[in-house]
C-alpha cells in the first residue's frame, strides 16, 4: 500500500509542494534575521567612525528630538508610553496619559493629552521622573492647539473664541477674547490679530499696535526676520490672484523689492520672483539678483546661509553662500543638503536614481520614498554614509535616524571633531 502511494503522482506533487514551502520559509527567515541584525551592524560601524549611539535601534518604538541645544528628546517606549529624555544625564520622565510630546525646551514642553493640551515644566518633570500636578504650568482641556516659541519661551493657546500667550512661569503675556483669530509670528515677539477682516501686528510684551494692514491684506508668513504681506488683485474674485510685499523693520513697505507674484521663505533668505528673481536677507536687503534665466530656474532651496542651485552636470547641486562670493564661488556636490553646518554637520539625501531629487520630496515624513539619508561635515566629508531610510536634521550634533522601521538617536559631535 505504501509503495503504491509513493508511486502515485499525487504524492509526488504533494512532496514537491512541501519542499518548496520549506525553502520559502527558510529564505524568509534568513531575510528577516538579516533585517533585524542590520541596524546593530550599522551602529557598530557608526561607533568606529566616532559617532556616539545615544539610544540604540529598537530601544524606543518612536523617537523625536525636542531641543538638541538643551539635550532633550522624547521617546515612546515599548509599552506605548511616552517618556521625556535628558540626553546628557539619561534621566527620564514617564508621561502616562499623554498621546504625544510636541515642541518644547528646557523651560517648558507641550504635551498632547487625551483632552486638549498641557504646558509642563521640563525640569520638574525630569526631577520627579513623571508627570505630576506640580509639573503642570497650564492644562487646557478645551484647546484646539498649543504652539511653543523657543525664542520667546512661551506658548500660544487657541481655544474657542479665545487666544492666550502664556510664559514659562505661568504668566499671561497676551489674551484676546474679542477677535476672529490670532497667531504669533514665531521668533518675532509679535502676534497678529484679525477682526472683521482687518489684521494688526501687536507687540506681545507691551500690547502696542505696531502696524494695521489695509482691508483685504493678510500676513502670509514670517521668515528671514520679515513679514510677507499678501494683497489680492481683485478681492471680489471667486479665485484670488495674490501679489506680495515685504515689511521693513519700521513696518513700511520694502520699496527696493516692491510687489512680487511668487516667493519662498527660509530662515535667512526670501527668494522672490517678479520680472527677474532676487534674494532678500534678514536686513531686508537684496543680496543677489538672478538676471540669468538659467540661474533663476535652477534655484532649489536654502538652508541657513547656504542656497542650492541645480548644476549643469546631471545629479549635482551648486552650493552658494551669498556672504562668501555667491554663485561665483559655488561648490558642487552630488548630495542634496537640508541645512547649513552650524554645529559642524548637516543632513544630506541621495535619490535612488543617482540624482539629488528635491527638498520637498526628500522632506516628506513617510518612510516610503526614494531616498537614502546620511550626514556630512562642513567640508562635505562623509560621516555616516547613506545608510538610513529616514533621518532628521541634527541639532547640537544630535539626530534621530530610522532604519528598517526602527528608531535610534546618534551624536555626531565626536565624528565632526576628528
Structure report:
The chain is of the alpha+beta class and 418 residues long. The protein is 16% helix and 43% strand. It has 6 helices and 34 strands. The strands form 9 sheets. It has a 4-stranded antiparallel beta sheet. A 4-stranded antiparallel beta sheet has the order 2-3-4-5, covered by helices on one side. The longest helix is centred in the first third of the chain and has 40 residues. The protein is flat, with a radius of gyration of 27 Å. The N terminus is likely disordered.
> How much strand?
35-45%
**Beta-strand segment tally:** 34
- Biggest β-sheet: count, sense, barrel? 4 strands, antiparallel
Low-confidence spans: 1-7, 23-37
Structural class: alpha+beta
Annotation field: number of helices: 6
Distance between the termini: 76 Å
Give the overall shape: flat
Mean pLDDT: 84
Walk me through the topology.
Elements: H1 2-7, H2 9-48, E1 52-55, E2 62-67, E3 72-76, E4 82-86, E5 92-95, E6 98-104, E7 108-113, E8 117-121, H3 122-128, E9 136-140, E10 145-149, E11 154-159, E12 162-167, E13 172-176, E14 181-185, E15 190-195, E16 198-203, E17 209-212, E18 218-223, E19 226-232, E20 242-246, E21 262-265, E22 270-273, E23 277-280, E24 286-290, H4 293-298, E25 299-303, E26 306-310, E27 317-321, E28 326-333, E29 336-337, E30 345-351, H5 359-362, E31 371-377, E32 390-391, E33 398-403, E34 406-411, H6 413-416
Antiparallel strand pairs: 1-34, 2-3, 3-4, 4-5, 6-7, 7-8, 8-9, 10-11, 11-12, 12-13, 14-15, 15-16, 16-17, 18-19, 19-20, 21-22, 22-23, 23-24, 25-26, 26-27, 27-28, 29-30, 30-31, 32-33, 33-34
Amino acid at each position: 500500500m505504501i509503495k503504491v502511494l509513493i508511486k502515485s503522482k499525487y504524492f509526488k506533487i504533494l512532496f514537491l509542494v512541501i519542499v518548496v514551502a520549506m525553502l520559502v520559509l527558510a529564505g524568509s527567515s534568513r531575510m528577516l534575521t538579516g533585517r533585524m541584525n542590520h541596524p546593530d551592524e550599522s551602529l557598530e560601524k557608526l561607533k568606529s567612525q566616532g559617532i556616539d549611539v545615544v539610544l540604540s535601534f529598537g530601544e524606543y518604538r518612536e523617537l523625536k528630538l525636542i531641543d538638541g541645544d538643551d539635550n532633550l528628546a522624547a521617546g515612546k517606549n515599548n509599552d506605548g508610553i511616552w517618556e521625556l529624555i535628558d540626553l546628557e544625564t539619561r534621566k527620564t520622565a514617564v508621561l502616562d496619559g499623554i498621546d504625544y510630546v510636541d515642541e518644547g525646551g528646557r523651560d517648558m514642553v507641550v504635551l498632547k493629552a487625551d483632552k486638549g493640551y498641557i504646558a509642563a515644566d521640563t525640569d520638574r518633570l525630569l526631577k520627579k521622573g513623571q508627570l505630576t500636578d506640580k509639573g503642570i504650568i497650564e492644562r487646557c482641556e478645551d484647546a484646539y492647539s498649543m504652539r511653543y516659541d523657543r525664542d520667546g519661551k512661551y506658548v500660544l493657546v487657541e481655544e474657542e473664541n479665545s487666544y492666550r500667550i502664556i510664559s514659562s512661569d505661568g504668566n499671561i503675556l497676551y489674551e484676546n477674547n474679542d477677535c476672529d483669530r490670532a497667531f504669533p509670528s514665531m521668533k518675532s515677539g509679535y502676534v497678529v490679530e484679525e477682526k472683521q477682516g482687518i489684521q494688526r501686528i501687536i507687540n506681545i510684551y507691551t500690547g502696542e499696535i505696531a502696524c494695521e494692514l489695509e482691508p483685504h491684506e493678510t500676513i502670509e508668513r514670517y521668515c528671514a526676520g520679515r513679514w510677507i504681506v499678501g494683497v489680492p488683485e481683485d478681492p471680489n474674485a471667486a479665485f484670488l490672484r495674490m501679489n506680495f510685499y515685504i515689511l521693513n523693520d519700521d513696518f513700511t513697505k520694502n520699496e527696493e523689492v516692491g510687489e512680487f507674484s511668487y516667493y519662498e521663505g527660509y530662515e535667512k533668505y526670501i527668494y522672490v520672483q517678479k520680472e527677474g528673481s532676487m534674494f532678500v536677507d534678514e536686513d531686508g536687503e537684496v543680496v543677489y539678483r538672478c538676471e540669468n534665466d538659467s540661474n533663476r530656474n535652477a534655484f532649489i532651496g536654502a538652508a541657513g546661509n547656504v542656497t542650492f542651485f541645480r548644476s549643469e552636470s546631471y545629479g549635482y547641486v551648486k552650493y552658494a553662500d551669498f556672504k562668501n562670493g555667491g554663485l561665483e564661488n559655488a561648490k558642487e556636490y552630488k548630495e542634496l543638503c537640508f541645512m547649513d553646518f552650524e554645529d559642524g554637520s548637516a543632513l544630506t539625501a541621495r535619490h535612488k536614481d543617482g540624482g539629488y531629487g528635491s527638498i520637498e520630496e526628500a522632506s516628506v515624513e513617510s518612510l516610503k520614498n526614494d531616498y537614502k539619508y546620511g550626514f556630512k561635515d562642513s567640508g562635505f566629508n562623509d560621516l555616516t554614509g547613506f545608510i538610513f531610510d529616514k533621518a532628521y536634521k541634527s541639532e547640537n550634533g544630535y539626530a534621530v535616524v530610522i532604519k528598517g522601521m526602527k528608531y535610534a538617536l546618534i551624536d555626531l559631535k565626536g565624528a565632526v571633531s576628528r
